[in-house]
């Protein structure tokens, strides 16, 4: 029996995830910015489960110091050549007016009837009987900056040692000198690789080199309380037939031996330890919608397509400076400056892409039942938004 076995070291791997760096901005006449939601942190359903069902490295103070890797952990490693790349000013773009023509009354009328028909509690009478008084086209632009970055972190990792080759001789290359193929641009991706010449064999810290760990179900005794009689030894006036009156039965987890195969070393008693390089590629997005106080809820535009007026892609883009709407130029300058300040010292900026979209929005004024009302037709899909539809049933009015 391995009654004396105890784990004298505890070690849990850090699971690092870059916080979502996406930001969404609404630029109105007051230039108000609204940050987007952050990514939720991951969690395991079973707190006792071993992440990825693999080995964990021994505590850092038991590991050798590898030159160039003295500070391992979750903090990103600054690239060796940060700040060297600078965007080049583009040649002057020919001036062009981007005015949005208002949709026709026929199209606005058709879209409104379709909208009313899609609502179970809306009467179709306002949509069919209304009289147009004005259609106003609203110049609405969406600016987007995407910055595709690569960041690197290092930490000790391990796997059960089964006699495989130990790459522990030679000088370990610096983290940013290790070549790693770049995945598809502007798509998030994470990859982990083993740093050459950092491998070493260590005794398993979880089981003290024994290959087996104490069974947590029976607490190393090999026996558990009888599930049939609840440990009483009797069921009613009769002796329990399952445990024969002892109140204890053989532990099903360990087969009655009191110990189980070590989950860290898989019963080998040794670990092949090495430094793991984790590479994270992330597409960081900055979005600004320029709205001139139209009263339209711009959050509805998140799933709406517009007409692309400009697409610029380069390792480092230069802010847009010659767009007819100065608010777009200001949004581009702010976005480029913010992303460069945020990422240039901690990540490698691989590629940037900025786009400007024109989103058609028409504000429709109409009269029905001697009252004036407003609705919006927006996007190339000609969707409709109406804050106060004039003829709803009672249940919709209460809601």
UniProtKB/TrEMBL annotation:
Name of the protein: Protein SSUH2 homolog
Organism: Cirrhinus molitorella
CDD domains cross-referenced by the UniProt entry: DnaJ_zf
Region Disordered, annotated ranges: 29-58
Gene Ontology terms for molecular function: heat shock protein binding; unfolded protein binding
PANTHER family in the cross-refs: PROTEIN SSUH2 HOMOLOG
Family annotation (InterPro entries): HSP_DnaJ_Cys-rich_dom, SSUH2_homolog
Membrane-crossing segments per the record: none
